[in-house]
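Hey L., structure's done. Input below.
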Amino acid sequence: MNRTAAHGFALVTVNSRYPVASSTMTIPRQPCYLSIDLEDYKHATMLDMGLEPRTNPEQTWRGVTRILSVLRETESHPAVTLFTTGQVARDQPDLVRELAAQGHEIACHSDQHENVYSLDRDRLLHNLRRAKDALEAACGQPVVGFRAPNFSIDDRTPWAYSVLAEAGFLYDSSLATSGPRTKMEAYDVMPLSDHALFEFPIYRHRLPGGHGIRVIGGTYFRLLPLGLIVTLMKQSAALGYVPLIYLHAADADDQSSPVRLNEMRPLPYVSRCAWSLRQQQWRLGAHSVADKLRAILTIFSHQGPMQTALPVHTTVRCTRPAP
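Output:
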């Protein structure tokens, strides 16, 4: 017997290249959260290369528009959380303002996409405050959520959570973990010395050799087949997580916009070749992102901005001294 038929499902295609589950029975969709990590790909990549960065605002607009257009086709909540860098807020304030006006939550993704483990406590606090000021100036609403670039809050930076709270954030979504959860809520409560920080953990599926798959987004979303992504999301839910889908604007942009060889001219030849190959890897699977997302949202139901999951009594902490 066909494996899917044995579970009461037939495979059909609905406006998509990918098969999605259908059933004669009404089966409620499992909850999930879709979010966008919103950095300027070119700016962040050139900084990583050690070059004077340039921006590519057209790619940022294209990628975000493509993701949100797919969301509007589904029966999920129409608004998302966008973890946005301070650089995007300064260089593209109209984009941030428009997204906030549409009802999306603007959260923080560092100032210029710096990994947290590359900063010390004082530099991180300065980074967060600079980014938060730029984001709030652009969107006109409190910014209370944070996600570290590359999920770079880890065992090297346990002190980062108290810095987040000091900077005025209410919640974080940077912790990738594999252990089972027992809480009904999508978040955990991380007690600190004088208050608590809410944490939306992302499930990390363990692989041999100490490796793992964050479920699910970025390169994993682009390269893994739809069936495996759904299986991992269901495994995440079975372990007590509310699955998190994190996409970057560049993930959904199927127009090639790499840092060009002539822009990498200051780099040694070997470095230019290595970065060119790396950027090609980052483009693999971008054409499939919209169809995969459309199919997944027939099985999982996006719940809306992550801030709305917090307890209703939660208020924004004003931690900066008055000017």
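The first helix runs from residue 3 to 6. The chain is about 35% helix and 15% strand.

-- N.
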